[in-house]
Every structure is written in structure tokens, then in C-alpha cells.
Amino acid sequence: MSCCEKEKEIKDKVIEICGEFNNDPNDLIAILHKAQNHFGFLPKEVQSAIAEVIKVPQSKIYGVVSFYSYFTMIPKGKHPISICMGTACYVKGAEKILKEFEKKLDIKNGQTTADGKFSMNTLRCIGACGLAPVVMIGERVYGNLKADEVEKIIKEY
Amino acid sequence: MELIKSFDELKKITSGLKNKAEKDEKSKIIIKIAMATCSIASGSKAVLDIFNEEMKKQPLESVIKSTGCMGLCHSEPTVQVTKPGSEPVVFGHVDPKRAKLIIEEYIKNGRLIDGVIEVN
Amino acid sequence: MKSKQIKIVLRNCGQIDPENIFDYIERDGYSALGKCLSSGDRKAVVEVIKKSGLRGRGGGGFPTGKKWEMVSNYQSDKKYVICNADEGDPGAFMDRSVLEGDPHSVLEAMAICGFAIGADEGYIYIRAEYPLAIKRLKIAMAQAQEAGLLGDNILGTGFNFNIGLKYGAGAFVCGEETALIKSMEGKRGEPVMKPPYPAESGYMRKPTNVNNVETFANITEIINKGADWFSSIGTEGSKGTKVFALAGKVNNVGLVEVPMGTTLRELIYEIGGGIVNNKKFKAAQTGGPSGGCLTINHLDTPIDYESLKQAGSMMGSGGMIVMDEDDCMVAVAQFYLDFTVEESCGKCVPCREGNKVLYQILNKITHGHGEMEDLTKLKNFSEVIKSASLCGLGQTSPNPVLSTLANFYDEYHEHVVDKKCRAKHCRALIQYKIIENNCVGCGACKRVCPAEAVYGELKQKHLIDQEKCIKCGACIKKCRFNAIIIE
Lengths: 157, 120, 487
Prior knowledge:
heterotrimer; A: alpha+beta; Glutaredoxin; 2 domains; 7 helices; elongated; B: Glutaredoxin; 5-stranded mixed beta sheet; 5 strands; 18% strand; globular
């Protein structure tokens, strides 16, 4: 697909997404969520398309994307791993879980594996503290996790 | 769903629902299964499936409900069973195997099994 | 055992199907709204909430009725009701449970608030990390709309109230009401100076009432059962109940709802089932990153807004993390500062730069390079950050430091002077040692050591080379003779 075709595809999708919210700048966060769900991340091209459609300066869009930890300009892995580092999980050994994932996947927190299969981030409290320590892979929640279970879980994907 | 056109109509509906609930409590087994984030992460969906499947085969009539958090995260998945005329009993750490045991032992034969949670 | 819990906020959680509005209606759902609309008396509704003594459950503890009154007194063509469902405190999951288990209780309360203050539009600002709560809210909103219990001409009374959802995107600071409002307007969640308060100029510069999920979840019971009933529960200054999310090293981890004034001992030992593995209780952290620690000295403190403040902590949203003898309080303070540094919006210098300095000092201490003057610096910086920060995040971020310094000074002292961590947590300050008498020379530890730090011949006493040891703990797990200890 040529560069122009790709740009058009992005623009068309962005127009569709923004249209669901009546191109209202107040709904920028919801628009960005939807755009990220579709494109997998929020590269410059997507941000600039959104800026054009809802008539907000691109710098403001970038300011919002860079402020909120949910939004990423780097492609997420096919299976995004979120390791909860909330207090309850911390107290129940979340650091060990993080180290184990880093070891087994050979990536550091915030990175994506070379094959694009997994990306890893820490989250501040998923709210499942009853099951601490907790890890989410996609929308699936794993609770009461032990470091020696990490390898088995990775193999599920 | 019908539009509720007035407060009086709402009161009537509430009253009707309460009567039905009272009747159900007297004649049916009420089974409540927690389906909050912690519950689902601990495997409660499979437990719900078992109750739905197995209770159909039983002659006793039952009402099976998915509910929110019972606050007992330490023992998820949790299931609350209320037999007509008895106090509710909450079972913890329920998996498909224990679900079948609860049906066989407690629901059918009134025998309590291990893992009952005292709610305080 | 008679229940210590009184379920007001959690009355329906675990009992009704949140995806079936009729379950909610059967339990008198929407009758409080019907009562208010039938009376037609907005002021009376505000008075009931004022009289009940309900205080904001998000952490601030501001009297709810007073807030409603303030907003209702402003003249404006448009007003808004906002429900703060951003529950960002790590360790708190009360709001998530209410939204997943009894979403209608919040919707009904928002409509009642709208009626009382003169608003016809409301929003729930919910964090994106709660997909199940979002799903259940959407179902509840659609069902309520279909039944004419939300939307236009509710129950045929001519009162309109529409609720929309707005999403967070992983910023703790958006729990602060002015930052939340900014976020709702599609902007960076940077707090602004108050006054003006949102009650006067909030969302879209209109009078806005912002309340937490748990605050709203109390409203319908107060309307149905009366202000006197509610104020008969709790203490003089803190009426009603509080939902606590008990987490950490306690046996019965979960959600509990107790009358204000319940003691910490009752919470941890009676309801909470005591400390896991019968270890020694050390501290209970309340108020999340804005709070402090309660220690064994506070076990018999009745928990309410005032007593927690006096103890150097705060109620916060209700997250309570229980810690035992294996938790290092200096590391806990560092953990909270790590969080705060990450979550600071960056707008004001005291918070943005000050918290970084606090973190660096704590990091220095936990890595064995602390000096006595660092302890003085910690205290002084903390006080400056508290008094000079723009918003609640910065104003309370040093609390974990001040609280742990005050209650666990000995531990800080040991880290700095003796270079020891009594909880054996801080890696730089611990050593793995082999007890000569117990070691049989099986070599299991040597084989499993990733750093080749164990040396010794078969059937001979083994030794650990402290220079090479990375303190991973693999050896201690492998040893079947209790021959390895952490010092």
C-alpha cells in the first residue's frame, strides 16, 4: 500500500471515530482510546489526523497523549502484559514477578518483544487487590501469582 | 422493557417483584455466584456454567444469579446457597468439582461440606 | 458471632444481579428518586443530606450536604453532577466493587443529586482500568433509560436527567476534582488553583458537584431511611459507615463495611482474620500515597476522619494495606514516592522537583549510602512540599515519609548508621550466610546459584562469597537443611 493510500486509510478511520463523538474536542480522551484500540498505538500520523478533524492543534493532542500513561506512541505487543505494582501487590512480591517476566521475555518494563508478541508495562493498581500479586494479559486477569508460574503463563500464548 | 410512567406504577412493580421473591424463597433454592473482577479472575465463570448445567437436571427448582463482589476476595470463587427455610450458606474456593459436591451434598442432601465461610 | 459489619454502601453487592434492573427495583430501587421527585422539594432533599452528616468518601471528607447546598445556591443556566470513579489509590477497590455489583445505586443517587441542585446532566468519570465496571454501567444506564428511570421525563414528572460516561487514561492525579474536570474536557489532567471551586465554576465553567462513588452509594438509603437513622451510626464527627479494602498481609483480604468508630484491632483481627502465618503486625497504611501508617500503638484507635488525621494519616478512599514484620518501612516510603514522582502532573515545582528529591534520598538510604543529615533533609523537604504544592497530590505526597519517620525512626536510623535492614528487605543491606553447623555440604545451593557465588567441596561446609552474591534467594529456597539465613 502506498504512503498516500495508507494516510487516506488512517484519515478515513479517524473521521469515522471522531464522528461517533460529533467531533467534540471534549471527548478527545474517548477518541484516543478508540483510535488506540483500532490502530494498536497512536503514531504521529493518527494524532495529526485527529487534530485536523476535531480542529485542535496537534501540539495539544501530543500533550494529551504524552500525559496519560494509557496512551502509547510505540506499538503494543499482540498480548500486552500489565503487571500491577500497587501497594497490595508490592507487599505481596510484585517486584519478583516483574523481574521474572523481564528474565523470561528478555525485555525490560516498557518494551515490546522483537517478534511483537508481548509488550510489558507496569500498572498502578487494577483494583483486584484481593488477588495480589496480579498481572493482566490483554483483559485476562491472573491473580495470586507466584514467580515460578510466569513461564507457564507465557506459554499459554 | 416497559416504560414506567409514574411513581405509583414503580411502587406496584416493586411490590409485585417482592411478592415473587418471597414466593421463590419459600419454594426454590437460591444460588448466588459472585462475578466481579476478582471472581472471574479466580475462575467463577466455569462454576456458573456447572450450576446452570447441573441444576437443570435436578427436580428441585432453583434461581441462579450472577452477582457482584461479596467482599470475600480471599476465598474466590464464592457461592451463596439459600435453601427454603434456612439461613444462607457461603462456600469459598469453589471450583467445578466443589460445585458438583455442593449440589450433591448440601443442596440435595443437606450435608455441609468443608470450606463454608463465616461471614462477619 | 454477631456481625461487626453494617452494609449500607454494599447492601446489594453480592446479592443482586447487576445486569438486571428488576433485581434492583425489587430492593426498593429508584423509590428514593421517586420520593424526591414526588415531593418536588429540592431544598428538602439537600436538608436531609446535610442533616445525615454524610461526608465525602473519596478522601477529603467534605460534608456532602454542604457541597450540594453550595452548588444549588449558584444561579446558572446549566449545572453538572459528576461521579468520581477514578479510584486511583493503589490498594483500593471499593468503588470498582460498587460499580460492578450495584451500578444503579450510583445512577439513582446522581439523579437525586441532579434534582436537588438543579442539574439535568451528569457524568461518571471512570478509569479505563475497570472494563467490567464500564460494561455493567453501560448495561445499567441503557436499562434505566428504557424504563424511563433516567433520561427525559423521569417517572412522568417532567424531570430530565441524562448520564454519560467519560474515561480516564491512567493518570492518578485525575482523581483530584479540578484535574478530573480538565480531563473530562479532553485536556491534560493538570489541577488548577482553588478557589474558584468546582461548585462555583467546574465542568465547562458551570457549577458542578463532584462526589465519589461511595458517597453517592449512601444517598438512596439516607433518603429512604432518613437522616436520623444514618446519623445514629458512627461517631460524633463521622457519621455512617466506611468501606475498607483490606489487603496485604491479612488473612481475610477483601471488602468490609463497618461503622465509623470501629477500631483497627477489630478490623484486622476480628473481621480480617489476623496476620497471615501468624506473623507480627507492623503497620496498616491508610490513605494510599496521601496517607500514613497506623502502628500497634493505634490498634485501639476508633477509626474516623479526625482520629486518623491526629494519628498522622488520613481516611483516604478506604484502601488499607496491612504490613508485617517482613516489610521495611523505609522501602514502603520509597515505594510511595516512586509512585508520586511518576504520577505528578509536573505543573508546580514543589511537587515535581521536591518529590524527586525525596525519592532520591530514600533510594540512597535503602541502598546503604544514607547519612544522618538525610533524615533531616527528608523532614524539611517534606514540610516545604506539603505547604507549597498546588494541589492535594503534592500537599499530601510527603505523608508516607513523615508518618514512617515519626513511627519507625529506629528503622531509618538502622539503615543509615548500622547499614542494616531489620525486615531483611533492602538488598544492599542484607547478606545471605551459610550456618556452618547446619550445612552438610550437599551442594544444592552451589548448583542453583546463578552468580557462582557459593563455593565448597562436596560433603564439606559451603560458603557464600558476598562480593559475588546478588541476593536472589535461589539458594535459600533450595536448601533442605535450614543452613542458609539472611542477616
